[in-house]
Amino acid sequence: MADTDTLILETTKGRVVIALRPDLAPGHVERIKTLAAQGFYDGVPFHRVIENFMAQTGDPTGTGSGGSELPDLKAEFNAEPHVRGTCSMARTNFPHSANSQFFICFDDARFLDKQYTVWGKVVEGMDVVDTINKGEPPRSPDKIVKASVGEAA
User: Fold this and answer.
1) What is the domain range of residue 122?
2) Could you give the number of structural domains in the chain?
């Protein structure tokens, strides 16, 4: 049986496996699953990648200002720390503005704790995340080739 709490990102640099955490952020996990199932993330670039901080994706425009057609999410801030491998939702200065964009932490980013919604953790492929082209935006952005939920590891 497939694990429906696993997100697989096939990227231009390789495969990344994320354990989803519906216990921490059920609404955000449901959104990620819905968008992945719709193919929303397929072909989307990592548009903001800051060395020793994080890699951000989820905006099909590649500008950092886009999102899905679904309504913004209510914040589900939790006590899970922003450390290496943490997956968290990006948002504007308004707490309830997360939609489709998310980031993966390269390193400790505890200053984000309880201000952004953590919804998962990379369990395989952090070495792949480390190699994503850096920049805001990167000169040659890497992309999510395909995102899927519930595939066997």
Assistant:
1) 5-151
2) 1
Whole-structure pTM value: 0.96
Predicted confidence (pLDDT) per residue in 93-144, tens digit: 999 999 999 999 999 999 999 999 999 999 999 999 999 999 999 999 999 9
- Domain with residue 48: its CATH number is 2.40.100.10
CA distance 26 to 50: 28
User: What's the residue count for the chain?
Assistant: 153
- What does the pLDDT look like over 36-86, one tens digit per residue? 999 999 999 999 999 999 999 999 999 999 999 999 999 999 999 999 999
Q: Comparing C-alpha atoms, which of 104, 92, 88, 17 is closest to residue 53?
A: 104
